[in-house]
Design goal:
39% of the residues lie in helices and 22% in strands. By secondary structure, the protein is of the alpha/beta class. Helix 5 packs parallel to helix 6. It is globular and about 40 Å long.
Length: 166
């Protein structure tokens, strides 16, 4: 069996929204957006969340909502025709996928909102110690993690930016 064709992996607390469809989807050539998120897949508000996200996809992409475990279990069965854009809302989720063998080759960080206990390191990204540890785990496994809100911006290494901002 061939490896899944994962064309992009992004962390965005908003998950699937118009910016993903308009900018990143086109930039990456994806034809399937996989929202790997336990709440969006099976949480109490999953149907509501999924409806909004499917509307944001505008019918341009196939959209799937899988728990992290289901993603781990089935990603290797993806068709070679599927150009998969994985979308998570936290670095811990992406780190779990990577550590479980999902062949992610890069991690793009878009939006991680400021919450109590987090330090803002760019206009759109705030992190805490747990987030930084998840990024460190990914980097140790060979997965570069960069902040880049839109494709026209220059990517910035998350860990370097965090050190410079702290």
């Amino acid at each position: 069996m061939t490896a899944p064709n994962i064309v992009w992996t992004r962390i965005d607390e908003r998950l699937l929204h118009g910016q993903i469809r308009i900018t990143w989807g086109k930039q990456t050539g994806a034809n399937l957006i996989l929202v790997a998120n336990n709440e969006a897949a099976e949480g109490p508000n999953a149907a509501f969340m999924q409806a909004g996200m499917k509307a944001s996809a505008g019918g341009e992409y196939a959209v799937r909502f899988f728990t992290l475990q289901k993603t781990i279990d089935v990603i290797s069965k993806a068709s070679a025709k599927q150009k998969i854009f994985i979308l998570c809302n936290s670095p811990e989720d992406v780190a779990q996928l990577v550590e479980s063998g999902v062949p992610i080759t890069q991690c793009n960080v878009g939006n991680m909102h400021f919450h109590e206990g987090k330090k803002q390191i760019t206009k759109t990204v705030s992190v805490n110690e747990s987030d930084l540890k998840a990024f460190e785990r990914m980097v140790k496994l060979g997965v570069p993690c960069t902040i880049q809100n839109t494709p026209d911006q220059k990517p910035v290494c998350v860990l370097e930016q965090a050190v410079a901002s702290m």
